[in-house]
Specification:
The complex is a heterodimer of chains A (about 375) and B (about 300).
Chain A (H helix, E strand, L loop, with lengths): L1 H12 L10 H23 L4 H13 L2 H26 L7 H18 L5 H30 L3 H21 L5 H6 L26 H19 L1 H11 L1 H6 L4 H25 L19 H11 L7 H22 L4 H28 L10
Chain B lengths: L2 H34 L7 H19 L2 H25 L4 H23 L12 E2 L9 H5 L1 E2 L1 H19 L1 H11 L1 H6 L4 H27 L10 H11 L4 H23 L5 H7 L2 H16 L15
Antiparallel strand pairs in B: 1-2
Helix pairs in contact in B: 1-6, 1-9, 1-10, 1-11, 2-3, 2-4, 2-9, 2-10, 3-9, 6-7, 7-9, 10-11, 10-13
Chain lengths: ~375, ~300
């Protein structure tokens, strides 16, 4: 995992480093997170809350009870799925900032399917809506991929633009064709669909808890992504294109095709996240507030944090997603207990991104200065 | 409907388009400066949000709009120093660290707003600043010369920035290190110092853009910018990295928005269709990106950290 983080950044910086396995690679990003949390403590202090009891409240609420953990697991689902998608894209040296839009498009297609076929039995309808989510997200990702591969348009910009298009398209559908008829009748006009068919409800795993089938789906996708990347020819091609496009072309690997499919895979996972957000929600409908993060709650961006902390490894993304999901749950508890607005956590996530990315510099330097014993690593 | 009424509406739409273009213009001028020096800043939206809150809160407390603008700029400059440090000294990956700055701004501005303001209270925007003679002109006067001071500042910055970029040594240095930092360095241009200055000024402009937005709207709320900062980044590509191009792009965006708003007020199109129309700017940008990618070349050193002898 460590080696992967290093090798990823060396692709991006074009720095020649031998893959090095060392625990420095693990410690330094963790220090970056701790530094961000320390700044969070200062923020808590200046907001008039005791940082120690504040963090205790957060982690207690998120991991201290079965109910809390169940809530954390549910919050982690979109983060894990988007994060795993980010791992795949970044491995192919494609920066996918479009998780937000891909989630929205996946959710819209899945919702449309549920609205169109409410009578199909659960056993068939649930796989159908999840697949629809994947297709919607993959389509949206593939657009950005094709623009990069064939028209040389930076994926960073195109994914950002596609986010805006997707959100406006969702606002249009949820205020127009797909709006809950009851909202029109009442005149409240909240942009949301009607309560979707019960056949598409994701089954609850433990009676009385929030944890639902989505957790299993997300874990399954994470493992599948791992297998895809390191146990299939397709995954080899993706990583090869990311590591050295020129050499890959000589080896007969199509760079444009793989760039497009990397974004399609990445989008598919975000799309599934969007679908789960709809069918695993307590209200069982698709709802937004008209704002740019109204539906996703920034999960499309927060997934980037998850993947970065996990060293772009799908399996390490699982604990990473749980950590950030826990922070979201904890933030809500903190808001109730100490009147600290839960927006704190979005700010903290931002700091964590910045610090983890910046910590790469210290890692490279430590590795060079210490002349840590370099050894061959099989890239896992 | 009489002709004079139609003229009135057109004039009002264009005037409001110019007003709406202003925050885009300020932010994308700043972004263009940074990118010309070879540094991509994806955090514009976050900087704008913090600048907007800072300005809004200052005006709420002091009742002085100019203090608000200054605070907006100051916040932008501060974040600029931080961003320059992490991208230049620590060589952090620019695409991802910018998203970190965005998330920080998104969360922090909301946090501060909820903690220190809570319920939105409106502030009074700038009065239009009349320019003698020009403002009195029929049609043109109302369209171009009855705006608030921020609008004049923003559009005044376009020739200033063109001059700096293309007619001064400093501008030449910026363009040189954006294209070939090694060559510039070998001629004694400090890559570090020049990039630092470009990033700091660029972020200051983003902060000002946020302040301008909050003061223009007279309000602050969670996610006030609603991804405007991201559009500002795209406008830099749209305008092919030239101040004039960026201005044209901002005006197109402002006008499209104004037309959509006008149609909404007159009920020409239903509310839901206006959401569809709001997709237009982003789609236009994607198409423009395809053209720009073909015809223009981005600064060669964009997003590449400079390491001496590296």
């Amino acid at each position: 995992m460590t080696a992967l983080l290093i090798s990823f950044f060396s692709y991006r910086f074009h720095v020649k480093t031998t893959k090095t396995k060392s625990f420095i690679g693990l410690i330094i990003p963790l220090c970056a997170v701790l530094l961000a949390l320390a700044i969070g403590a200062i923020m808590l202090l200046s907001l008039g809350a005791n940082p120690i009891s504040g963090y205790a409240t957060m982690f207690g609420a998120a991991f201290g009870s079965v109910e809390g953990f169940s809530e954390t697991a549910v919050k982690s689902i979109p983060l894990l799925l988007v994060g795993v998608g980010i791992c795949i894209a970044f491995r192919a040296n494609v920066i996918n900032i479009g998780g937000e839009g891909q989630m929205v498009m996946g959710a819209l297609l899945a919702t449309a399917i549920a609205l169109a076929f409410p009578d199909i039995p659960s056993l068939l309808l649930i796989p159908m809506v999840l697949l629809a989510g994947a297709v919607g997200g993959a389509f949206w990702g593939a657009i950005a991929g094709a623009l990069k591969a064939y028209f040389n348009v930076s994926e960073i910009l195109s994914t950002i633009m596609l986010n805006i298009v997707a959100v406006q398209f969702m606002n249009f559908l949820l205020r127009g064709p797909m709006i809950d008829p009851a909202e029109i009748a009442r005149g409240t006009g909240i942009p949301q669909t009607m309560r979707l068919t019960e056949n598409a409800d994701l089954p609850i795993l433990i009676e009385g808890m929030r944890m639902h089938l989505g957790v299993v789906v997300a874990l399954f996708v994470a493992v599948a992504a791992y297998i895809l990347l390191w146990r299939t020819a397709m995954g080899f091609r993706l990583r090869s294109v990311g590591y050295n496009p020129h050499a890959s072309r000589y080896a007969g690997i199509s760079v444009p095709k793989n760039v497009t499919s990397a974004l399609a895979f990445s989008g598919a996972m975000a799309g599934i996240a969007g679908a789960i957000l709809v069918f695993g929600s307590e209200s069982h409908r698709m709802v937004t507030d008209g704002g740019s993060t109204g539906f996703t709650g920034s999960a499309g961006f927060n997934g980037i944090v998850v993947a970065l902390l996990a060293g772009l490894h799908p399996l390490w993304s699982i604990p990473s997603a749980l950590l950030f999901g826990g922070m979201l749950v904890g933030a809500n508890a903190l808001q109730r207990a100490a009147q600290v607005p839960s927006a704190l956590i979005i700010a903290l996530n931002g700091l964590i991104v910045v610090f983890v990315v910046s910590s790469e510099y210290f890692k490279q330097r430590t590795l060079q200065a210490g002349r840590v014993e370099q050894e061959e690593d099989d890239d896992e | 409907m009489s002709d004079s009424f139609a003229v009135m509406i057109i004039v009002a739409t264009i005037a409001s388009g110019i007003r709406l273009a202003t925050p885009f213009l300020l932010a994308s001028l700043g972004e263009a400066l940074g990118q010309r020096s070879g540094v991509l800043n994806l955090g514009v939206d976050g900087v704008m949000l913090l600048g907007a809150f800072g300005a809004y809160y200052t005006v709420l407390q002091s009742n002085n709009l100019y203090y608000g603008l200054l605070v907006g700029i100051a916040i932008g400059l501060l974040i600029g120093v931080f961003y320059a440090f992490i991208t230049l000294n620590l060589q952090a990956e620019q695409g991802v660290s910018g998203i970190g700055i965005y998330l920080f701004g998104l969360g922090m501005s909301d946090l501060l707003f909820q903690k220190f303001v809570g319920t939105p209270r409106p502030i009074l925007p700038f009065m239009p600043l009349d320019i003698p003679v020009l403002s009195g002109l029929p049609v043109v006067g109302e369209m171009l010369f009855q705006h608030s001071i921020i609008v004049y500042i923003a559009f005044g910055l376009v020739p200033v920035m063109s001059f700096v970029l293309y007619r001064t040594t400093y501008g030449l240095n910026i363009r040189a290190i954006g294209e070939n930092p090694e060559a510039a360095d070998s001629l004694g241009v400090s890559v570090m110092a020049t990039r630092y200055s470009a990033i700091i000024i660029g972020n200051g402009l983003a902060g000002l853009a946020g302040a301008a937005l909050a003061i223009e709207l007279g309000i602050f709320q969670q996610n006030l910018t609603n991804a405007m900062g991201f559009i500002a980044i795209a406008l830099v590509y749209f305008g092919a990295w030239s101040p004039k191009g960026v201005m044209i792009g901002s005006l197109v965006f402002g006008l499209v928005q104004a037309i959509v708003l006008q149609c909404k007020t007159f009920g020409v199109i239903p509310r839901s269709a206006s959401d569809l129309a709001a997709m237009a700017p982003a789609i236009i940008t994607i198409l423009a990106l395809v053209v720009v990618a073909k015809r223009f070349k981005q600064p060669s050193a964009l997003t590449k950290p400079y390491v001496r002898g590296g």
